[in-house]
Amino acid sequence: MIRLKEEEFAEIVEYMRQNYGINLEKKKTLIECRMSKELESQGVTTFGRYMELLKKDKSGLTASNMVSRLTTNYTYFMREPAHFTILRDHILPEFSKSSSRGFLNVWCAGCSTGEECYTIAMILQDYRDRTGNLLNYRILATDISGQVLEKAGKGIYTAKEMEGLQAEWKNKYFRSADAKTFSVEERLKQNIRFQNQNLLSPYMGTEQFDLIFCRNVMIYFDKKAKETLVRKLEASLKPGGYLVIGHAELLNRGEIKLEPVFPAVYKKNREKQR
Q: What are the residues facing 232 on neighbouring strands?
């Protein structure tokens, strides 16, 4: 394993904080363990040389590979299921009553390998099939890692990765890809757009969302990055829209302008938003 010198460690910590808001101050051993093979694949023997190559790489691929290795992409279908119950029983019935929405616009921020955005799509599709009165929907699924987005876009999962799904949905929304894997049905895929995005980069678009899932992302951010992201998420919500974050990321009144309506669920009220 390639060891980090103190100045190399400091450089990586600062680079990740400045560019991605990720705090690695206490993660020296993690960096050494997760990055040593990456350095070897690049043919370099020191972290200092690796950072030189990263900064010269205009394609951004080297940086993307480092971010993929240093961030935890732990996810699974139906993670924190209480949120999906709230979506099905409270949020979707409310949206269904609104005639002003041409379609439901959803952003899955930090989508990782796709299990979350496909779970959302199954909830929405199932609600439409059962009630017949939900608007059409589209989902923007973003992540900083090109590697996890590639897997998410393919939508192919093993039986073990699908353990959290009920049998009815496995049969309804997946087809056998081969003897060991299953592929998400095209009718779900066609409503999802995958996109590489750094959540801390300035948002240049005008798109706003009825529903934003940004769960278990801010736990890796430092205070400044967390504040920047919260402001961005607030601005990206339509009036009457909902923001869903991880249960370990609860925000107090001083950190967010949105109204808490359920555990780790916030609403942008039409009349109160500042």
A: none
Q: Is the pLDDT of residue 274 over 50?
A: no
Q: Do 273 and 239 touch, CB atoms closer than 8 A? A: yes
* 85: CB partners within 8 A, 6+ apart: none
Q: Listing from the earlier edge strand, what are the strands of the sheet with 104-109?
A: 192-196, 137-143, 104-109, 209-214, 237-245, 265-267, 259-262
- The angle, 0 to 180 degrees and rounded to 10, between the axes of the packed helices 47-56 and 28-42 is 70
Find all residues with CB under 8 Å of 104, minimum gap 6, and list them.
Answer: 95, 124, 134, 135, 136, 137, 138, 210, 211
Q: Which residues are catalytic?
A: 34, 143
Kindly state the greatest CA–CA separation across the chain. Answer: 61
pLDDT number for residue 99: 56
pLDDT digits (tens, 9 = 90+) for 25-42: 989 999 999 999 999 999
Q: How many CA atoms lie within 13 A of 200 on its CB side?
A: 18
* Cα of 7 vs its chain's centroid, Å: 32
Q: Which domains does the chain have, with CATH numbers?
A: 6-70 (1.10.155.10), 82-267 (3.40.50.150)
By the 10 Å C-beta count (0-12 exposed, 13-18 middle, 19+ buried), 128 is classed as middle
- The span from the first CA to the last CA of the chain, in angstroms, equals 52
Q: What is the DSSP letter of 221?
A: B
The per-residue pLDDT for 203 is 65
